[in-house]
């Protein structure tokens, strides 16, 4: 069961950004981690409660490295969640294509996103739901600020180049809330070891880990940090920066 608090926040985020709409057929990206498992259960509950109809299917992208998804398949079956494994050869492609020193994680993330989009087409879905949360949005924001010189985060909803709408229903929730949901329900979660980048002998993505540490130190000092980040992401004075395209005058 997904907590009332999560369901309430899901409802608020949905209402604010019009995420799920009548007649949608939504592909939920299910890695089997705590976030996407919570997402699929929360959306299933939302489907039961919504005064309008929409469809949900969960899809797991397999990288072609002999993953064992039997526990995840059984979990979905026993909870009445339509679930498909989308087979790919991303792992082999990575071995051939990846440039030296490029980030394995971002390579896999790009390839996986492409596969999720093809799966959405194959299953006739108009939206793709991802399990990113507020901690992800804050980490992305600071990574973009510090490493790329770009003010940028993760949108709750956007249209991809191919026309598909991507939604992030958990984007205003804390990672620890989602971890607690998975733990309290005893869901069989797949951890980071499932990411194929772990199989390559390269530097791990330190940047994100560093941002996590930095944010947790800041939160120690400013306990309301994430409440403020959530508010700030919704209050943007874009004419107060230096972007010539955004000057109000
Ligand atoms: N192998 C996969 N198959 C389908 N969807 C995926 C897969 N990996 C990630 N996703 C989707 O992309 C989102 C973001 O992926 P990311 O790798 O940042 O998170 P994650 O740490 O895998 O999250 P989770 O706790 O859900 O596993 C996930 O929440 C999920 O919706």
Automatic annotation (TrEMBL):
Q: Tell me which domain of life the UniProt entry assigns to the organism this sequence originates from.
A: Bacteria
Q: What is the lineage of its organism?
A: Bacteria, Pseudomonadati, Campylobacterota, Epsilonproteobacteria, Campylobacterales
Keywords (alphabetical) are:
ATP-binding, Nucleotide-binding, Transferase
GO MF annotation list: ATP binding
Q: State the name under which the record lists this protein.
A: ATP-binding protein
UniProt cross-references to SUPFAM superfamilies, sorted A to Z: Adenine nucleotide alpha hydrolases-like (SSF52402)
Q: Which InterPro entries match?
A: Rossmann-like_a/b/a_fold (IPR014729), TilS/TtcA_N (IPR011063), tRNA_thiolation_TtcA_Ctu1 (IPR035107)
- Domain tRNA(Ile)-lysidine/2-thiocytidine synthase N-terminal: from-to ranges: 26-195
Q: Which Pfam families match?
A: ATP_bind_3 (PF01171)
């Amino acid at each position: 069961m997904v907590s009332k608090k999560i369901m309430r926040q899901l409802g608020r985020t949905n209402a604010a950004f019009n995420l799920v709409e009548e007649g949608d057929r939504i592909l939920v990206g299910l890695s089997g981690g705590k976030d996407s498992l919570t997402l699929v259960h929360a959306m299933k509950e939302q489907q039961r409660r919504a005064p309008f109809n929409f469809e949900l299917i969960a899809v797991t992208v397999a990288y072609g490295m002999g993953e064992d998804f039997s526990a995840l398949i059984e979990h979905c079956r026993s909870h009445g969640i339509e679930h498909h494994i989308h087979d790919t050869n991303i792992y082999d492609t990575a071995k051939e294509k990846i440039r030296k020193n490029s980030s394995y994680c971002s390579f896999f993330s790009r390839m996986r996103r492409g596969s999720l989009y093809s799966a959405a087409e194959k299953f006739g879905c108009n939206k793709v739901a991802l399990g990113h949360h507020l901690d992800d949005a804050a980490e992305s924001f600071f990574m973009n600020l510090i490493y790329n010189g770009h003010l940028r985060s993760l949108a709750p909803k956007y249209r991809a180049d191919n026309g598909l709408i991507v939604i992030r229903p958990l984007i205003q929730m804390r990672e620890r809330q989602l971890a607690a949901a998975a733990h309290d329900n005893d869901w069989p979660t797949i951890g980071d070891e499932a990411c194929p980048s772990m199989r390559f002998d390269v530097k791990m993505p330190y940047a994100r880990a560093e941002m996590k540490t930095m944010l947790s130190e800041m939160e120690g000092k400013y306990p309301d940090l994430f409440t403020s980040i959530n508010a700030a992401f919704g209050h943007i004075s874009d004419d107060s920066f230096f972007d010539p395209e955004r000057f109000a005058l």
